Amino acid sequence: EIVLTQSPATLSLSPGERATLSCRASQSVSSYLAWYQQKPGQAPRLLIYDASNRATGIPARFSGSGSGTDFTLTISSLEPEDFAVYYCQQRLNWPGTFGQGTKVEIK
Amino acid sequence: EVQLVESGGGLVQPGGSLRISCAASGFTFSAYDMHWVRQATGKGLEWVSSIGTAGDTYYPGSVKGRFTISRENAKNSLYLQMNSLRAGDTAVYYCARDAGSSMDWGQGTLVTVSS
Description:
The structure holds two protein chains of two kinds. Chain A is mainly β.
C-alpha cells in the first residue's frame, strides 16, 4: 500500500500570505496525485488533478507541482475562504489512498 | 452535472446492520467504477469499498467480511450493506465516482453506531 504523508499537520497563516503544503509518497506515484479542499460539514472539493492541473472553476492562486514522491500545493495569497483542510490522494494504485490532511488555519 | 445523493444513514446499535444508498445522475452510471469513503468526526478520509464496472469488489481489511458494496445500474444506484457494526464505524459515508484522475463526491450520510 502506498502511504502518503502530509506536512505540516497544521499551518497557521494570515490572509494574504502564501501557503505551501507538502505531500510525500512512500513510493513513486508518477504524476497521479490529486489535491482536495474540505470545509467543515462539506464534502471534499477537487482542486488539482495529475499533480499540476487545476480543476474546473478553481482560482489561479491554487497551484500544484511535483512528481514521483514529492508534491506541493501552493496557495499564492490566502483568501478568507481558503482556510480549510487539504488532502492529497494518489491515483496510481486503485482506488487511491489519502494523506492524513493539512489544516490551514487563521493566525 | 454529476450528482451523487446518499441516503439511509442513521443510528444503529453495535452489532446491528444498515444499508446506505447513493443515487447517481448526470452521467452514465454503468460506465464508472464507484467507491464508498468514510470520515469519522475530526478525522481524515478512509476508503471503505469499491466496485468496478464489471461488478468486481474490493475492501480494506477493516471492513472485509462485514461490508458489501453493490450496484444496480438500471436504477443508477450504489449500495453499501453494513453488518456487525461497531462504534468505530461511526462516520459520514461518502459515495464517490471514480473520474480517473480524481473522484467526484456526494454530500455524505451520517452513520452512528451507539447503544
